[in-house]
Amino acid sequence: MLKQKGFTLVELMISLVLGLIVAAIILNMYIATIRSNAQALETIRLNQELRAVADVMLRDMRRTGYSSEDDVSDNPFAGMTTASTPIAVYDSGAPTVAAATGDCVVFGFEHDSGDNYVVGYRWSTSAASVQMHWNNIASGSVTNQGCPTSDWFSITDDESTEIIANGGFDGVSFATIPSSVASFASASVRSIQFRIYGRSTSDNLIDATIQEEVRIRNDL
Question: CB within 8 A of 46, min separation 6: which ones?
């Protein structure tokens, strides 16, 4: 009579445990891959968001003081701020007092359409966003402009990005660089530095910082 051969109960239990361990390892690797991909996508999205906002700010600030008027004395933006300059930095807590550093910048230029605009950018702590001010003004000189207290709108996506303070810096900070004489001309050159710090709303560990310096070519 032939004896029947097979696995014992202990061998079956060991095989089952080993199979579960292998399955758990594979599942954890899959979850880690999904999480890593999600974080990578969030990082890319955050950097693209901040880069897009910074590019808009750079583009506008480079147009500071632009006017189709041939005579500088007729330029409506020459002394438009409370500092009697075409661009100035303010702290939103003191919106009429120009400062070397602050969380708001104000300037003006003539748009392609021929309309004159007072433009501003600031950090909103309540909305945790970068905000923009865009005001079409009547013809004539613009004077005594500070950081506006109304008519602001957010230009960052508050569903994916929050602009917050970090490392002693405001979420958006501006700094005026003292004027210097350009090597290629006798005119002075004014520069503005700005810094934006953003964090993903879905993952507090994902953050990014962008810092830029803008040379104001229409220095008046």
Answer: 160, 161, 198, 199, 200, 206, 207, 208
**For residues 36 and 33, what is the distance between their CA atoms, to the nearest angstrom?**
5
Residue of 120, 114, 122 whose CA lies nearest to 135: 120
Residue type, 124: S
The highest-confidence range among 22-26, 136-140, 214-218, by mean pLDDT, is 22-26
Q: Under 8 Å CB-to-CB from 100, ≥6 apart: which residues?
A: 89, 175, 176
**4: alpha, beta or left? (left if phi > 0; alpha if psi -120 to 50):** beta
Cα-trace Rg, the chain: 28
CA distances 119 to 7, 90, 112, 181, 207, Å, are 80, 13, 14, 26, 28
Please tell me which of 144-148, 154-158, 188-192 the model is most confident about, judged by mean pLDDT. 154-158
Tens of pLDDT, residue by residue over 157-201, are 989 999 999 877 889 999 988 765 555 455 556 789 999 999 999
For residue 181 the two structure tokens come to 């004489």
Which two structure tokens, joined as six digits, stand for 71? 């005579």
Q: How far apart are CA 53 and CA 189, in angstroms?
A: 24
Q: Which amino acid is at 154?
A: S
pTM, two decimal places: 0.81
Q: How many CB atoms lie within 10 A of CB 185?
A: 8
